[in-house]
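Progress report, Aim 2. The chain analyzed during this reporting quarter is listed below.
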Amino acid sequence: MSSVLDSYTGNRLLSSYQLAKLHTFEVAARHQSFALAAEELCVSASAVSHRIGGLESELGFKLFGRFHRRIELTPEGKRLYQRLRETLQELNREVLEIKNQEVSGLLTVYSRPSIAQCWLVPRLADFCRRYPAIQLNLLTGNDNVNFNSFGIDLAIYYDNKVRGKLHCEPLMSETITPVCSPQYAQRLGLANGVSQLKYCTLRRD
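Predicted structure tokens for the chain:
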């Protein structure tokens, strides 16, 4: 049994010991710079160069061409970097699926059109990436909805009241400031206080 294990270990081209060096290689290849890689890894540029050199010796081929004040991936380095990136992306997807495997199904969200357009929609791509197993159904409108009748799981309102037994979480606050021409303000005496606003014709654009 030990001879078979020794044979297997000796035939492996990569080992767990080399994972740290592969990480250094990925950062250096991404930045195309030992100095920038050193900054991200919080080590010296010479330490990065030493790790890369050790990895090249162990692999038996060059990963970078060294030139005056710059480095460049060799054809072999480009192949290895491309495969390493694909592997890391696959691992990230797998980790997300494992983390979110219990979060799945249909989620129906109701929102005011203005919130949906300006705040919610720009965040949907990131939400779908983080929770790929959730099927999102987005509804918009200006009515206060009945959760029991419309199958809505979550609603986003402009409001400061807790409705019935619903659980509410504040997302953000806003300030609305009325504006008008100086002539209109003078005619209605708006400089005297906000009480005069009740006599104004309010317009929302």
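Strands lie at 64-67, 70-73, 105-111, 134-140, 154-156. Confidence is low (pLDDT under 50) at residues 1-10. These observations will guide the mutagenesis work planned for the next reporting period.
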